[in-house]
Amino acid sequence: MGKLKIKEISLRTGLSFSTVSRVLAGKSNTSQQARDKILACAREIGVAETLSNRLLINNILLFAPDRAFYARQDHFYYEVIQGVQEAIAPHDVHLHSCALQERHADIPLFLEKLNTPRAQAIILLGIDDPVVHKLAASFGKPCVLINSLDQEMALDSVSPDHRAIGFRGAHYLLEQGHHRILSLLCLRPETLVAQLEGIKSAFHHHRCVFDEEHHLLVTQNFCEKEAQEAVRGYFTACAPSQRPSVLLCGGSPLVNGAIAALKEMGLRVPQDVSLLGSGVEHPPLTALAPWLTTLHVPSRALGVEAVNLLQNRLTHPDAPVFNLRLQGKLGRHYSVAQPGAGEAESRYS
């Protein structure tokens, strides 16, 4: 931005040239009151658009479930946070974190954190508590949801397109001739219900009946051990002729649990059972299992886009609320084989 515009903002706001220059350059060490005044003036005289390459935030407060901060507990959310870090790295921005329950959150803790200088902008990662959403929307600061659903449609959000990802996975398997498809899913996050809807839609598209008894296995948590036990129990209860020909697993822990269960039962992938997994792209599941056919779900890109949405909300506070959906990508490898004889006719119809 030119010196004449900085001088004009300085004259209009009564703040020094150096203060205006620091704020518009994205520097810290300026009061929130001065920052708000300068940004409002920049929007008023129509120069806010020229600031899109500079982060006008110096502190972001990120709320997420406790497991999100540990790669071994939730690799997906951990990678999303790495994406946020990557987006702010070139700028004078500090990321502060606070663990919060997905549902039935500690509201007094949330309010306490909101009323600190660290809360210039807010990111809610995987938080599904509607009370938290309402409070964040009323706070008057930029706020973005990641992988969560705001029923009031008051907050910007970015998520994987779970419905499209579910549809793509099931559609691919049905195209290969599989119909004894068992979807192994955790539906605890509200957004993942959309993945199941996408799977059902693919069945409908192929004129196949989706029967939850034969096509769905749900875990309570994203837990490898729980997934292993669920798959083992399901296969043990099935007659060999009625076992699934393929497992469609939603998430890296469920993929790992399914692989462990199949190995424990002496079943080979893909000779005995095919496997299609979904997981983050950094590092991809295929780095650990190069043979695995995988739906790569964007993770770091979610963090980057969340920061972009915060910046857009600062420069365009009256813009419509955004609901951004990022697509996955199918990586074809060797874990999905053609179904055995008679599979094409077995549709549980």
Structure overview:
- The chain is built from 13 helices and 12 strands.
- The protein has helices at 3-13, 17-24, 32-44, 75-88, 107-114, 130-138, 162-175, 193-205, 212-215, 224-237, 252-264, 285-288, 300-315, and strands spanning 59-64, 94-99, 121-125, 143-146, 156-160, 181-186, 216-219, 246-250, 274-280, 293-297, 323-326, 329-331.
- Helix 6 links the parallel strand 3 and strand 4.
- Helices cover 40% and strands 17% of the residues.
- It folds into 3 domains: 3-51, Orthogonal Bundle (434 Repressor (Amino-terminal Domain)); 59-160 and 299-327, Response regulator (Rossmann fold, 3-Layer(aba) Sandwich), CATH 3.40.50; 162-297 and 331-345, Rossmann fold.
- With 349 residues, the protein is an alpha/beta fold.
- Strands 2-1-3-4-5-11 form a 6-stranded parallel sheet, covered by helices on one side.
- InterPro entries: HTH_LacI, LacI/GalR-like_sensor, Lambda_DNA-bd_dom_sf, Peripla_BP_I.
- Residues 4-58 form the HTH lacI-type domain.
- It holds the Pfam family Peripla_BP_3.
Question: Which tags fit this structure?
Answer:
349 residues; alpha/beta; 434 Repressor (Amino-terminal Domain); Rossmann fold; six-stranded parallel β-sheet; six-stranded mixed β-sheet; 12 strands; elongated
Summarize the structure.
This protein is of the alpha/beta class and 349 residues long. It has 3 domains: 3-51, 434 Repressor (Amino-terminal Domain), CATH 1.10.260; 59-160 and 299-327, Response regulator (Rossmann fold), CATH 3.40.50.2300; 162-297 and 331-345, Response regulator (Rossmann fold). 40% of the residues lie in helices and 17% in strands.
